[in-house]
Amino acid sequence: MKRQLSYFILVYFLVFLSPGCTVVKTLIPRQGQTEPVAKIEDISIPVVKGNILVRVYTPQGNGPFPILVYIHGGGWIGGSIKSQDRICRYLSNKVACLVVSVKYRLAPIHKFPIPLEDCYAAATWVFKNAQSINGDPARIAIGGPSAGGNLSAAVCLMAKDRGGPPIIFQLLVIPSTNLSSLDTESYRLYATGHELTKKDVEKCRALYLRNIDDRYNPYASPLLAKDHRNLPPALVITGEYDVARDDGESYAECLKQAGVSARFYRFKGMGHFGPYWGAASEKVQAALDEAVSALREAFAEKR
Predict the structure, then answer these.
(1) How many CA atoms lie within 13 A of 58 on its CB side?
(2) Alpha-carbon dihedral of residues 178, 144, 228, 221, nearest 10 degrees?
């Protein structure tokens, strides 16, 4: 207990109270009125050395429904299924799918690869238990914003390497895909003044990864994977003024070069818009529409 408290104090001082820090704004979405869904259920699932919670959102209808495994953002050190409640309700209703929101364990107490292994375990659990939650195991997508986009891309790589679970689509929203270098044009141009700063990313990266070598692990930096063939089709949504913009767009191009159906949608006039995404705000309606359309199309193709 004392060790956990010490870690939380470390995170608080190093990240949240540092001068000019914008991570707080990125982790905490603006609250708003939530949409009703037919059912919400919290389920404890097994992971390595413990259990984690998943929250299952069920829309109106009979099912079996397609499934979106939703991975929240927060720099691998924050965020929660509670903070993403509004977007999960929104996607469940608009796409007519189950949304399974994953409460993975957070750094720095649980450093890489533990948060990622939790997300992979959740995707595997969803596949094996789809019928018990009125879901279709042949129509599973994964996605999330920011760190959730990074983790979603990495889960797809792991699923390919480990022979499953089958994932038919990945929705990567403002993702970081290369933690080995923060020296892209977007990092240089928008290091400050646009929600998430370069220093914020450096701090979160240091708290998430165990050492410098981890930066080059493709499960931490999916862009560095040697082989991107046979990965699920992808929509990558980026912000025009986001430090991670080039990470996301480079990943979409890398997937295309590997023969994967992938595209990116650059949201004009926006930085790292995680708070607006989490709250399903009207400010990001165009990006939400892109996501809903892409998910509907992906699920319809596998019907």
Answers:
(1) 18
(2) 20
Q: Are strands 234-239 and 65-71 parallel, antiparallel or unpaired?
A: unpaired
Single out the residue of 128, 131, 157 nearest to residue 142, CA to CA. Answer: 157
Extended strands (E) in the chain: 39-47, 50-58, 65-71, 98-103, 135-145, 169-173, 234-239, 262-267
83, 92, 146, 250: the catalytic one is: 146
What is the band of 177 on the pLDDT scale with cuts at 50, 70, 90?
A: very high
**Beta strand pairing call for 262-267 and 234-239:** parallel
Backbone angles phi, psi at 248, to 5 degrees: -65, -45
Distance from C-alpha of 168 to C-alpha of 288, rounded to nearest angstrom: 19
How much is the pLDDT for 303?
A: 80
User: Could you tell me the fold of the domain covering 2-301?
Assistant: Rossmann fold (3.40.50)
Structure-block tokens of residue 54: 């998943």
Q: Where are the domains of the chain?
A: 2-301
Q: Which pTM does this prediction carry?
A: 0.91
Q: What is the pLDDT of residues 64-86, one digit of tens each?
A: 999 999 999 999 999 999 999 99
Distance CA 99, CA 102 (A): 10
Of 242, 246, 250, 281, which one is the catalytic site residue?
242
d(CA 89, CA 59): 8
Predicted local confidence at residue 185, as pLDDT: 98
146 is catalytic: yes
Q: Is 23 in contact with 203 (CB distance < 8 Å)?
A: yes
For residues 52 and 44, is the Cβ–Cβ distance under 8 A?
yes
18 is catalytic: no
Closest to 250 measured CA to CA, from 273, 270, 228, 232: 228
User: Are the C-beta atoms of 52 and 123 separated by less than 8 Å?
Assistant: no
Quick check: is 118 catalytic? no
